[in-house]
Design goal:
MetI-like fold, single chain, about 0% strand
Length: about 270
């Protein structure tokens, strides 16, 4: 096989795979602009006969989707900021600070990765109930303030930072907090962006834990609100597609805008140390 033919074959496969992956999203967007019942026709139409914003109007005016959108945005942002703060500090400590039992404690921490998250949900719920935090945003935010994967990712990346930089700063009289803020944080920028995107996407799409912790409809996040809406409008495909677009579009735009930093941070974090 000639190099030109092989290149054309590879490009064709890549284009075909991209179309297969993107087509459901494009059709979802198209259906969201269709009139009620139009998507149920056989064969299903690819494009709306007469595009309309009625589904989005009903979604925000009648179903109150704007409130759930703000709930998801607030919860996801709070989780991202707190998780960044705790994961960066803990990852840096495990990578660069010397203290008794550091390696053993890190091994125990990594052992927690093999425990399914569902196993911890019941005792965590009982603990939050005892503290009186059930049906509050704190019940969703507090358990996600630090993650084992996030600490591991930061630790692997921070191990690649030269120790000479921090030793020189200590000789000049800089304290540990100043070293962390002025020297370490700027060097951790790629992994910070990666961790921020990963955490925000995970929090935004989380369904199971908010469903357990939030019992009041006024606190619902977007995935729970869409699931509740689907039970009431099970036959209204166009409305549900509009809701899916509202749920997917913000995180899709965020990921596409920052994907270069996301992939760079993942690759660097996987090879450092």
């Amino acid at each position: 096989m000639s190099p030109r033919l092989a290149k054309a074959l590879v490009n064709g496969l890549l284009i075909g795979g991209t179309l297969v992956a993107v087509f459901p999203l494009l059709w979802m967007l198209s259906v969201s602009f269709m009139r009620p019942g139009e998507a149920s026709a056989l064969p299903p139409p690819l494009l709306p006969t007469h595009a309309t914003l009625a589904n989005y109007h009903e979604l925000f005016e009648r179903a109150g989707m704007g409130r759930y959108l703000l709930n998801s945005l607030g919860v996801s942002s709070a989780i991202t900021l707190l998780s960044l703060a705790f994961n960066l500090m803990a990852g840096y400590a495990f990578a660069k600070l010397r203290f008794s039992g550091r390696e053993r404690l890190f091994q125990v921490l990594l052992g927690g990765l093999v425990i399914p998250a569902q196993v911890a949900m019941l005792p965590l719920f009982l603990l939050l109930k005892y503290l009186g935090l059930v049906n509050s945003y704190a019940a969703v935010v507090l358990p996600a303030m630090a993650t084992i994967f996030g600490i591991f990712l930061v630790r692997q990346y921070a191990r690649g930072i030269p120790d000479d930089l921090m030793e020189a700063a200590r000789i000049d009289g800089a304290g540990e907090l100043r070293i962390f803020v002025q020297i370490v944080l700027p060097l951790l920028k790629p992994i910070m962006v990666t961790l921020a995107i990963f955490t925000f996407l995970t929090a935004w799409n989380d369904f199971m834990w908010p469903l357990i912790a939030l019992t009041g409809q006024e606190h619902y996040t977007l995935p729970i609100a869409l699931a509740s809406l689907s039970r009431e409008h099970v036959q209204d495909s166009e409305l549900m597609m509009a809701g899916s677009v509202v749920s997917v579009l913000p995180v899709l735009v965020l990921f596409l805008a920052l994907q270069r930093y996301y992939l760079q941070g993942l690759l660097l974090g996987s090879v450092k140390g």
